[in-house]
Structures are given as C-alpha cells and as structure tokens.
Amino acid sequence: MGESKQGDTPTNNSETADSRPPFREPKPSVERIFELAQRVLEGDILLPKFQRDFVWTRAQILNLLDSIARNYPIGSILLWQSRQKLASERSIADLAIRAAKPDYPVNYLLDGQQRISTVCGVRHWTPKDPNSLWNVVYDLQKKEFYHRGTLDDPPLTQMPMRYLADPSDFFQRLSALDNKKCIEEGKRLFNRFTDYTIAAVTLGDLPLGDIAPIFERINSTGTQLTIVDLMCAATWDPDFDLSDAIDGILESLESRNFHEIERKTVLRTVSAAAGFGFRSEDMDRLRTKSVEELKKAICEVEEATKRAVDFLDTHIRVPGPDALPYTNQFAVLTELFRLSPSPSAAHYAAIERWFWKTTFTSYFSGWNTGQMARDWQAVDQFAKSTEPGELEISATVPRDDVWRLRQFRANSAHAKMLALMMSFEGPVDLLTGQRLDLGKSLSWSNDREFHHFFPKSFLKKKGMKGGEANVIANFVLLSSASNKSISDKAPSEYLSEIRDTEGHEELLRRLASVLISEAALEAAFKDDFTSFLSERCKALHARSLALMGGAEKNGEEHPIR
To answer: Which among 401, 413, 321, 407 has a CA at the least distance from the CA of 367?
Structure first.
C-alpha cells in the first residue's frame, strides 16, 4: 500500500493523484524585503514550530546581503494565509515577535526563514555579543560586507547594517564622511535595501493536509515540507512535541536497523492508533486529540513498530527499510501488530501471504484514499477474528513475463521481491558455495552482490543492448569476487567449470539457492538467453504464487481477494 506513483517504485511515497484535492492557484505579489521582515516582528507573519533553527553560516549571511546590494534575485518566499491555529516561534534572529491578533488571519512562513531571519538580524541587532552573527558592516570603499568581532565603533567608512533600521542615524553617520564616493555608495546601499523587493507567493486558507503537496509543486528551493512538519506545529504543546515523539519511535528501532523508516509512515501509524486511519485527512484530525491521547497513541505505536520489525526480520527476512518493497507496508503491519500483539500461527501465515500478495501485485503503487479506508477496516476485522481468513485485497497478479519486462533497479518492488525470495532459499555463491552475506546484499545501500547471470559484456558481444541484459530475471546474488572471476565468460563456460569441479548435483543445489531451475540451466548450457529467461520466469512465478498461497489460472491475470 505504498503510495508511489512511478510504476512499482516504492520510494518517495505520496497519495495518488486521484485522491488529491483540486489545486488552487497561489497568489503572487511583490513585497519589499524590509517590510516583510517588519511583518514578522509584528506577528503578522508567523514561523510555525516545524521551522528549523537558524542554520546558515556566516558566509551564507554575507552572500545574501551581497546579492541584495547587487540587486540579484534571491528567490521567493512562500506564505500560507490562514485562521488555523499552529504553534509558532516567539522569536527570530534573537528578536522578540509580537503576539498575533486574536481571530485574525495570519500568514505562516512556509519557506524563506533563513533569508528573512538574516534581514531581521542584521537590521535590528542590538550590540551585546561582539561575535554575534548579526554584527555585520558594509565597507563603503571596498564595497564588501564583513563580520566584526568587537563592539568598538568601526571606522566611518564601514557602515553597521543595524543603522538601516533608522534613516536618521544612518544619514547622520554618513554625513560625517568627507569622502564623496563613500557618501554616494552609502546612499546607494540605503536605497537598495530599502527598495529591494522579493516575490511572495501566498496560499489561501486551505486545509492543513492540502498545503504540503501544493508546496512540493511550486517550491524550487529543494526544501521539503511534509504533512509531518505541519502536524508537528498543529499538535504542539509545551508538554508534547510530535516531532520529538516520532524521533523517539525511530530511535527505538535503531538497534534493528529500521530507524530510517519514513517519518510520514510513522505519522500514519500514529493516526491509525488514534482511531482515525491512514489517510492524509485522518492525520489532519490528530489536532483534535488531547496531549494525553496523543501520548497514548505514541506509546502503542512504539511497541507495535518493534513487533512489525521483528516480523519483517524473522518471517520475511527484511533487514531494513531499504529492502522493504513498499514503505507503507510498514504502516499497515504496525497497525496489525498494535491490534494483535500476539498473533496465532494461522494469523502469521495469513500476514505473510498478504505481504507477498501486496508486493507481487504492486498493490501499494497506487494506494488511494478509498483503499486506505478499506484496508484500515480489513486490518481491524482481521485482528478481531479468532479463526483468520485472508487479509483481503483486490489486485491483479501479473503474468510470469513481468520478470523479463522490468529492469532491475534499486527502487523496484519486483527486484526487491526477487532478492527477498532468494534470501528465503539461503543463497550460496555459485563459484565458492559459501553462504552470502544477506545483511549486506539486502541493504540496497550497495548492490554489488546482485549480478547478471548472463554477463552483460557477453550479451553485448551477441548484439544485445544493455536494457535487454538488465531485466530482473537475469539477476542472481553473487559475490563481487566471483563476478569478477566470471567476467565476460559465456554461461556454458563458467557453469561447465563448476560442474566439472564440484559435480552436477552440487551445481544444481547452488543454482536452486538463487531460484534457477534445472530447465533454466539447460538453456544456459546452450547460451540460449531467450529460453533461459523464459524458464527463469516460470520458476520465479511459481515461487511467487506459492508464497501468496494462490494458484495460476491458465497463465492469465486474475484478481486476488
């Protein structure tokens, strides 16, 4: 039930397009940057609690100021005008922010914190700490910005940026100069910063869950805003921080190597545990829960995630989130184990079948809101049943040629399914017979343990393109050393060497451990790539159906219910 939109790709989950709300056109405007900074200090523009602390370096601060002085563009900012209540910061750049007016629409700053903070900081700095980030001067002769490390008054040719906040002080200091060029440069500096404008894009009072996907569409800064960030601000309380709570859950999974599961996936599990469900609108409803109710849901999720990880590790042999075909399989499994902490053997068997069904059918690649609601109900019914049937899904089993039609990629669910199926067999190295390191192989941080059975360079000599060699059915688990030894040899050559040295039965045993049948071996001895793929696909398909507990109907597509 992963929410990927790219084929069977499991990464970067987002709800499918048919479940998204209509896109409302943002309202652009042109604003003076000093006026924007003033609006922040006056509480008209607020910084939601999900905004991170100021992280810019001194060099980045000076670069921004230099860009403004040169009238270079510095990008736009994004605002969300809303009456919705989000916890917000009470200071910016060490400056106090006034309280917002009650029952008055405010503008939440979604993107642009570092730039606005810089402008506020250097303009309104009160000299106290000589090493402050905001102790910046502009050298009127060199036309460069500098950080100072002292509270001593700088030479008249160096204008402190804080003087820009008061025109009277600025021009009084400027008039003390006897250098006409410096005076003109000072006037230019003042006018540039006073008149410098920036594009501000304002989103209307949309529901909270709609903001993140819109931000993703129009944002070009590379900053990621997620519903997790928004909900952290919406549920924030002096006694509860959702961001910290999610961090705590992830930290509890670190010893099992599942601490990098997506934060949005964890938020889904919290929403389900709170009694709402998996959908974005369900997550949005978390704001209605009390702090105690949220804490209770967090505690339940933390324990359930540990049981979900244990299931994935011991029953499926998934060593970490990178090897998980779809991220949101984890969300559903967590809810399952929250509702049913100690499943029976029959329950476990049904959950295993569900895992393989949802993987092979690519069910998670298009998980829309309707499916989310139905699956949440199905999980509840399944957990309450003393004699479980199946965790029902409606999906279509692909034909066996899916293994030779799809490319082997790290983000392919079918490639990950092949890897997990091979791990079930206790794979051994074809040349040495030694067991392979599954933790390394299935981590997907380094795919060197996955190699072509028909060497890519061998097929290239036969006139085949790279895409033809890179199909899933042509991959096996193989050590890097053995892969180098095989190099560009024909399969008939290196397989004959193994058979002559180890015997035919041992060769069959090693091949079976990576799901290559005797029929596929016969095709490989003939260097017949087409026949090999056909036979390998049959073996992989048969294994897939067995794991799902289903049976194929005349090789045709059919739904699993």
So the answer is: 413
